[in-house]
Design brief:
Layout (H helix, E strand, L loop, with lengths): L4 H8 L27 E5 L6 E7 L4 E5 L5 E6 L4 E7 L5 E6 L13 E6 L5 E6 L5 E9 L5 E7 L3 H6 L15 E9 L3 E9 L4 E2 L19 E2 L12 H16 L32 E5 L4 E6 L4 E6 L4 H4 L15 E3 L19 E6 L8 E6 L11 E6 L2 E2 L3 E2 L14 E4 L11 E4 L5 E5 L4 E5 L5 E6 L19 E8 L6 H6 L2
Parallel strand pairs: 13-14
Antiparallel strand pairs: 1-28, 2-3, 2-29, 3-4, 5-6, 6-7, 7-8, 9-10, 10-11, 11-12, 15-16, 16-17, 17-18, 19-20, 20-21, 21-24, 22-23, 25-26, 26-27, 27-28
């Protein structure tokens, strides 16, 4: 059978002796999600990329490694539910975000609180907590080639701080705002870490709501910054030229007596808030971080903004706070953004292309001449109905000039270079992910139903698996995932350095 470990050995030219799979803890019928549909292996056809699939059910403390036949060949018992993504390192260690539910400040789907590393044999090697009143990790981590780890964190900002920067007082509650940051951790085992690099969204904000407040400027003329009011504004921001024309028109209207009412109308003296208006402090909800080793770039995803962002990791921490300088003269500002150009004044609602996307990942991260990324476009709220798609994009990038864009237009490209969708058959409104495999196929994790499948460039499904494993752990504060849901899944080639123990055991 192609999926068994004998294929691993054939692929690495080590041996043909089979390796006995490790028995998994069997799920109860309730843990398996009920008997309404078959779970486990659905399809294993010729053309599937040979390797092992790694996944961690959201309501379980277990992590599984399965072969192409759906047989569990290794299992970790980790004590805590996942706080997002999971990785196998080259050393054969399990690197995983873990969830701490008891947090007085931060709550919500994707919450973490710990970064943990386990040996192949299940020994806890590193247990670092990022969960206090100021910062808490969430959603994703990313191992770096130097052994460090990138981590996404929420940071708390008081309501008064946000209003001082130009946030509409009517659109912020007493919980304040949770702008995201990215930290690079150097592990200090067993229980500590050194923060050796950091980037903060709060350093790269702009607003056109109140000219008397900090950060005032033209949103449309500064795509390298995030509009602090972007999550609730009804219309696209104006450029400086458009703003001047609007001011001229208003002066003409005032001269004709059309003043729009008394100055006191609608006044919120002293910044006193109106109704909370459903304000959510987690206004970005950054759910993914990915690293491009060849160009030292970081890719981020904000589903609330329906955008992905690229930032420069080559800067020092001090320089990341600026919006000028660096290789591309943007400092730590946004180098590239795509998915919803209305957010920076270069489009309207009809130009939106992402619908709560997850898991953007670089394709061929060693290539420095061409930039491509893959993304799971969840698809809730599309004009033509709810359905998911996986899309590949070629970015407008020049190795010498950086990301290119015409001054009065949104960032390209206009269309994906490749996409996969199946209306009525393929949809997950949240979580989920996709990764390009070495043979050109794409591994897709439709997270809510716990479905993992592999498609060719032509859209043929050559492998499919429905997660049968769950657990008795709740998905966490703010979460509502089904019992067999998966945040992501990844395929490891048989010659992955981290699988050395399997290969040795089979000799």
């Amino acid at each position: 059978m192609r999926g068994m470990i004998s294929t691993l050995l054939a692929a690495t030219a080590l041996s043909t002796a089979p390796l006995a799979p490790v028995p998994a803890t069997p799920p109860t019928p309730q843990e398996a999600g009920g008997a309404e549909e078959p779970r486990g292996l659905v399809r294993n056809a010729p053309g599937a990329f040979p390797g092992l699939t790694l996944f961690s059910p959201l309501s379980s403390d277990r992590v599984y490694l399965i072969d192409l036949d759906g047989t569990v060949v290794h299992e970790w018992k980790t004590e805590l539910a996942p706080g997002g993504s999971v990785y196998l390192t080259d050393e054969g260690h399990l690197l995983r975000g873990a969830r701490k539910n008891e947090n007085a400040r931060f709550k919500g789907g994707g919450i973490g609180g710990f970064v943990r590393e386990w040996s192949w044999d299940g020994e806890l090697l590193w247990d670092y907590e990022i969960a206090d009143d100021y910062q808490t990790s969430h959603h994703d981590i990313e191992p770096l080639p130097n052994g460090n780890v990138l981590v996404i964190v929420w940071e708390h900002r008081f309501r008064e701080d946000a209003i001082a920067f130009g946030r509409d007082p009517a659109k912020i509650g007493e919980a304040g705002m949770w702008p995201d940051a990215v930290l690079e951790l150097k592990p200090v085992r067993p229980n500590d870490a050194e923060v050796v690099w950091e980037w903060h969204v709060w350093d790269h904000l702009i607003q056109d709501f109140d000219e008397t407040k900090e950060g005032y400027g033209s949103v449309a003329d500064h795509p390298e910054r995030l509009d602090i009011n972007a999550d609730h504004r009804a219309e696209a921001p104006m450029s400086d030229e458009e703003r001047a024309r609007q001011a001229e028109l208003e002066e003409q209207m005032a001269a004709l007596g059309y003043t729009g009412g008394d100055e006191d109308d609608g006044d919120t003296a002293g910044g006193a808030p109106a109704a909370d208006s459903g304000s959510v402090p987690d206004w970005l909800h950054t759910n993914a971080v990915d690293y491009h080793a060849g160009l030292d770039l970081i890719l981020l995803s904000s589903p609330e903004m329906n955008e992905v962002y690229v930032i420069d990791h080559s800067l020092s921490t001090e320089d990341t706070a600026w919006n000028t300088g660096g290789r591309f003269n943007k400092g730590g500002g946004i180098l590239f953004r795509w998915g919803n150009p209305k957010r920076y004044g270069r489009g309207d609602d009809g130009d939106r292309r992402f619908f709560y996307q997850h898991d953007p990942s670089w394709i061929d991260a060693a290539n420095t001449d061409e930039l491509r990324f893959l993304v799971f476009n969840n698809g809730g709220g599309r004009p033509d109905g709810d359905y998911s798609s996986v899309e590949e994009f070629v970015l407008p990038f020049d190795p010498k000039r950086g990301f290119t864009r015409e001054d009065d237009r949104a960032f390209g490209p206009d269309e994906p270079a490749w996409s996969y969708s199946a209306k009525g058959e393929f949809y997950s409104g949240f979580i989920s992910g996709a990764r390009r495999l070495p043979n050109g196929n794409t591994l897709i994790c439709s997270g809510a139903p716990g479905r993992v499948f592999e498609v060719t460039r032509e859209g043929e499904i050559v492998w499919e698996y429905r997660n049968p494993f769950s657990g008795k752990l709740k998905e966490g504060p703010g979460g509502n995932a089904p019992p067999t849901a998966l945040f992501r899944a990844s395929r490891l080639p048989y010659d992955h350095p981290g699988l050395a123990r399997l290969r040795e055991a089979a000799k």
